[in-house]
Amino acid sequence: MATTTFPLLQSSIGKKAIMAITGMIGYGFVILHMVGNLKVFQGREHFDEYAEFLRTVGEPAVPERTLLWVLRIVLLVAVALHVWMAVSLTRQDIGARPQRYRQTKKVQASFASLTLRWGGIAIFLFLIYHLLHFTFGVAAIHPTFVRGAAYDNLVAGFQNSFNVVFYLLAVAALGMHLYHGVWSMFQTLGLNGARTNGLFRGLAVASAAVLFLGFAIVPVAVLTGIVR
């Protein structure tokens, strides 16, 4: 029944296509999120105005936070599908070769590709922590959280060195994930070829570097007192 209803979920090609599409959604989100985070360098007023815009965009056509929650739900579904397909492909790969190879060849495998799955798990767990920290303001994680005070919440959250180190490790994992994932995404969707391979490889490297630096600079600036 499942094969007839959802044939795309039964083949490795279909699963990889779903991973690529959901990965593209996540890729677009992290770029926008990074750009938004960098507004903190414009000061409290500009950053809080940006946060208010996210909460009220769409008014008065729709109630406050409606479009924000639509975006969150789309992202949540994309992440869930991405993880589901990754787990399914891993199990399928293991099932196809129940006995371990005598020799493991890693000549063509980069460090990023070898750690892609573990990096994805780390990012997923960090995403949960990040939401509890800065979106929902759980007291055990962010005891001084004040709803609506985006700038002050960010500064207070990153004055804790543990949070900064944890955040930097997470964005490093994100960078490694994107280094392999961006190129793989275009390859899976059939958008890559001999002429464009160098372009997408370069985009993968640039994505990893720029997004790491773009996300990392904010907590470091807070911890060092540049942003306060």
* CATH superfamily descriptor: Fumarate reductase/succinate dehydrogenase, transmembrane subunit
Mean pLDDT across all amino acids: 86
Largest sheet: none
The helical percent reads over 70%
Short description:
With 228 residues, the chain is mainly alpha-helical.
Question: Can you describe this structure?
Answer:
The chain is an all-alpha fold and 228 residues long. The chain has a single domain, classed as Up-down Bundle (3 helical TM bundles of succinate and fumarate reductases). Helices cover 71% and strands 0% of the residues. The longest helix is centred in the middle third of the chain and has 31 residues.
List the helices and strands and how they pair.
Layout: H1 2-5, H2 12-37, H3 44-56, H4 66-96, H5 111-114, H6 116-135, H7 150-157, H8 161-188, H9 197-223
Helix pairs in contact: 2-4, 2-8, 2-9, 6-8, 8-9
List keywords for this structure.
3 helical TM bundles of succinate and fumarate reductases; 228 residues; mainly alpha; globular
